[in-house]
Amino acid sequence: MNDAGFTDTAPDVGGRDHASLLSMAYRAIVVALLAGAGETLLHVVLALRDHDMAARTLLPVLIVRGASYLAVFVVALRMVADVRWARGVLVFGLGTLGLASLVVEPLTAVLTADRFADLFAHWTPAAVTLGVFRGVHIAAVLVALTAMIQASGGSSADRTSDTVVTGRSQTEPRQT
User: Using CA atoms, how far apart are residues 17 and 150, in angstroms rounded to an integer?
Assistant: First the structure.
């Protein structure tokens, strides 16, 4: 029992314990970050090669992405150390803004295509590589979200306590 009256180990969730779920979530986040970094690097190389953008116009994008990825990595380190707020921040951030930013571009392409075949008309090796990076990124985020949510699982009935709230603004030892 810890000071709050709960057992120190989280319940076994779906055959995996709390620590292994957090470890899985952390590894998935690292994979997502690496896929995102690979996609970003390929976008930069393609933009500079095709002279679509000057290097100075890419710098703000790289700074924002780098700062975002660093922030996610630092919070993921806190999550794997079982800091509860970190898991909440990651679930909310990756599950909303993060996932939306990953699916909006492909979804827009699908919804604006005149014909289904148009989606495949201009495939290049670079486009396929970018798609693979994006697919791995999305899959890794979904794995991380699932593991973090499962790590939060277990009902309050799964936790044990030596005290009960009596309704009289006090607690009393549990009668067993």
Answer: 9
pTM surpassing 0.85? no
* 159 conformational bin, left if phi > 0, alpha if psi -120 to 50, beta if neither: beta
Listed residue (167, 168, 169, 165) closest to 5, CA to CA: 165
Beta strands in 20-156 (DSSP E): none
Dihedral class, residue 51 (left if φ above 0, else alpha if ψ from -120 to 50, else beta)? left
Q: Is 148 exposed, middle or buried (0-12, 13-18, 19+ CB in 10 A)?
A: buried
Burial of residue 15, with CB atoms counted within 10 A of its CB: 0-12 exposed, 13-18 middle, 19 or more buried: exposed
Complete DSSP assignment for 74-88: HHHHHHHTT-HHHHH
pLDDT, tens digit (0-9, with 9 covering 90-100), for 49-105: 877 667 778 888 899 999 999 999 999 999 999 898 999 999 999 999 999 999 999
Contact 7, 160 (CB under 8 A): yes
